[in-house]
Design goal:
This protein is mainly alpha-helical. Helix content is 71%, strand content 3%. It is built from 13 helices and three strands, in the order H-H-H-H-E-E-E-H-H-H-H-H-H-H-H-H. Helix 2 runs antiparallel to helix 3 and helix 4 packs parallel to helix 6. The longest helix has 34 residues.
């Protein structure tokens, strides 16, 4: 039994894309370091006595996420689809529950609270929706007797409608962009792309007209004098103070004034204490992650794996771009974590699930890759 398990681990290690694995592990490690820097200031703002409360919780979820990543990365393609389908159904059901009895924060009901923990189902919706839609597009291309495109479009619309009921405009935008990317890579015709573009445009206009908080954020971004911009102003001040080399680990002062410094604005903490060089290194890690995944996707022989890997990598990249863009005041503020780095149990576990799916689909199996 021990020999069989050792052989399985050896096969997994030889087949896994170690570059992708090490980049994900590096991002998780960066998150732990920045959590150590941001936790004391965050606990003071939250009136928590233990200065390393968020570090301990972040470490717990990082360890748990590592286990999820390693387990999922060992699954077969069939089991990947099964896991994604179960996660998608469960996520949609739980999002519906949050709309009714969810914990409300800032006017949005996005979390379920139990036993001292909060669960955000929408985080798990993203990777599972990407994988299932990729499978449906691939089946449609292969001539399967199911309306794959119609079902995929229906799942996307259902997801966005439920998210907007919470409301969660940021996640809706991210899902739309990623779904559109997978749509494009699938090679679907112009009519389908026009339909998606029309739907997305109608959704944005509706959000502007009927969701006051969306219009307010956009107006504040376009005209900072029209309202309060404390978060982004403080983030910009922290980034400016860091300069090229940073003020040093634990020496940041503006982070003490920055709301959500351990979650949405963790990039500003990195810039203040470790400077421009560290900030560019973080951006570089995300660039390597996305580029490596897309390079692998181009070589895969399975169309489903190509679409799923492309979509998952696009999710990581776009989420990082949105988070960093908010920190730099390049886009209106949104509640979006920096993948693998920001504090947040649901986000960490869901991102580990997505990374595990990506690693599993890019493993080197017989016939999985085109010959050079």
């Amino acid at each position: 039994m021990v020999a069989i398990e050792a052989r399985q681990v050896g096969d997994w290690w030889r087949s896994i894309d170690r570059t992708l694995l090490f980049v994900v592990l590096a991002l998780i490690s960066v998150g732990l370091i920045l959590s150590l820097a941001a936790s004391p200031a965050a606990t003071v703002r939250e009136n928590i006595s233990d200065p390393f409360h968020f570090l301990y919780r972040h470490s717990f979820f990082a360890a748990l996420s590592l286990g999820v990543l390693l387990f999922v990365s060992s699954l077969s393609s069939r089991n990947i689809r099964r896991l994604a389908a179960l996660t998608l159904v469960g996520s949609l059901a739980l999002i519906g529950v949050t709309i009714v009895i969810g914990h409300e924060v800032g006017g949005a009901s996005r979390w379920l609270r139990f036993a001292g923990f909060s669960l955000q189902p929408s985080e798990f919706l993203k990777p599972s929706l990407i994988v299932i839609c990729a499978w449906l597009f691939a089946e449609a291309r292969n001539g399967a007797p199911i309306p794959g495109r119609v079902i995929a479009f229906g799942l996307y619309l259902t997801s966005v409608v439920l998210l907007m009921q919470q409301p969660d405009f940021g996640q809706s935008i991210l899902i739309t962009l990623v779904f559109g990317g997978v749509f494009f890579v699938a090679g679907l015709n112009f009519r389908w792309m026009l339909g998606l573009a029309t739907t997305a445009t109608a959704g944005i206009v509706s959000a502007w007209l009927f969701l006051p908080y969306v219009a307010t954020r956009v107006e504040r971004f376009l005209n900072p004098d029209a309202g309060e911009t404390y978060q982004t102003d403080t983030a910009i001040a922290a980034i400016s103070r860091g300069g090229v080399m940073g003020v040093g680990p634990g020496e940041g002062t503006i982070k003490r004034l920055l709301p959500d410094s351990h979650t949405d604005f963790i990039f500003a903490v990195a810039a203040e204490e470790f400077g421009l060089i560290a900030s560019l290194a973080i951006i570089g890690l995300f660039a390597i992650l996305v580029a490596r995944a897309w390079m692998n996707a181009l070589k895969l022989t399975d169309h489903f794996a190509q679409l799923a890997v492309s979509g998952l990598a696009l999710q990581f990249g776009l989420q990082a771009v949105i988070n960093i863009g908010v920190n730099l005041d390049l886009i209106p503020p949104k509640g979006m974590t920096l993948p693998f780095i920001s504090y947040g149990g649901s986000s960490m576990l869901a991102l580990a699930l997505g990374a595990g799916l990506m690693l599993a689909l890019t493993r080197r199996r017989p016939g999985a890759y085109l010959r050079s």
